Hints:
With 132 residues, the protein is an alpha/beta fold. The chain has a single domain (20-118), classed as STAS domain (Transcription Regulator spoIIAA), CATH 3.30.750.24. The protein contains 5 helices and 8 strands. The strands form 2 sheets. The protein has a 6-stranded mixed beta sheet, sandwiched between helices. The longest helix is centred in the middle third of the chain and has 16 residues, at 58-73. The model is unreliable at 119-132 (pLDDT under 50).
Amino acid sequence: MTGASFLVEMVRGVPVVAASEEIDITNAGVLRAALLQAAAQGDGTLVVDMSRTQFCDSAGLNVLVRAHKRAQAQGGEVVLVVSGDAVLRIFAVTGIDHLIPNFASLEQAMRFLRRTSDFAGAALPRERTHSR
């Protein structure tokens, strides 16, 4: 899956990275760059919207776990939106479902962040950028 890009947009003051249908060794570096960009746009807290993602290999898992650890070290948090059964199964087998908070929808993830932090920004995305 070469040439993939990951859209980063602000939703209610929180950077949200829209993941592609497949995350693997060929685009894990692009995802890493998008997550670093997203973390720099806020306070280190970000959402990875994997609602379209149907496959995530170990390279993608590594990027997500490292982003989670970076965010925690900076006082932030990574939250995942995951709806694909195959991805949920991979997360369950590897234990990532217990390590990184994950939700079935972006709205659920945003409610979680509002409860755990003070995110009260605008309701519409304010900015869109691509990482390539």
